[in-house]
Amino acid sequence: MNLLELEKRQTLPVKQKLGLASKRIYSAFMELLERQFPIIDKGSSLKLRSPSDFAEQLNIHVNHLNRAIKYANGKTTSFMIKNRILQESKRLLTISMWKISEIAYALGFSEVTHFNNFFKNHTKMTPTQFRTSEKKKDRISVK
């Protein structure tokens, strides 16, 4: 057996271990993320909003969390968090009668303008425009 073959044999178990560990971390991360939703009380606020918040809860370094999430699903930790917050904001804008400010604070935004900017950056419309367009869709589908 040559040196290259020996090296390949030794690295395979390490890669498998990395994959298993990443999947466990990813599963724990997703469980923590999903446990915060759906938001049903406008008086509450998201506690875990950043990769470092999640890493602290999982008792691992934020860089380790970021590598594991990226390895497990190809997306960044920040993307996963933002995507889930965006999904929940759309749900709340569609089904609730809460004010935009109440939704913003429930999603953990300290300022309504931060929420408006976040939403517009991801959807190309303001929360109010989104809500209006969803109401129009509902009226059209009812007819």
Description:
With about 140 residues, the chain is mostly helical. The protein folds into two domains: about 1-35 and about 45-75, no CATH class; about 80-143, Arc Repressor Mutant, subunit A, CATH 1.10.10. It is built from seven helices and no strands. The radius of gyration is 20 Å and the shape is elongated. The N and C termini lie far apart (about 75 Å). The mean pLDDT is about 90.
How does the SSE layout of this entry go?
Elements: H1 3-35, H2 51-58, H3 62-73, H4 77-95, H5 100-106, H6 112-123, H7 127-142
Helix pairs in contact: 1-3, 2-3, 5-6
List keywords for this structure.
143 residues; mainly alpha; Arc Repressor Mutant, subunit A; 2 domains; 0% strand; elongated
Please summarize what this structure is.
This protein is mainly alpha-helical. The chain has helices at residues 3-35, 51-58, 62-73, 77-95, 100-106, 112-123, 127-142. The radius of gyration is 20 Å and the shape is elongated.
The total of helices stands at 7
Number of domains: 2
Q: What does the radius of gyration come to?
A: 20 Å
Question: How confident overall, as mean pLDDT?
Answer: 88
Q: What's the end-to-end separation, in Å?
A: 74 Å
* Number of E-type strands: 0
Shape: elongated
- How is the main sheet built? none
The secondary-structure class comes to: mainly alpha
